[in-house]
Amino acid sequence: MLQIFKRFIFNKLKEEKGQSMVEYALIIGLVAIVVIAVLVLLGPAIAAKFQEIIDNLG
To answer: Of 38, 35, 57, 34, which Cα lies nearest the Cα of 49?
Structure first.
């Protein structure tokens, strides 16, 4: 009985599907935070550059 329980625990510890899914979720979350931060910081500069292009076209 103890061997069966021990084998069951070791098999569950070897499964990495859930672990890798959590790692991917953390990476995606970090990338999203970086993208949002860059857009917040560079947003006004990008908008000003587009406005300059629009003014030069008109």
So the answer is: 57
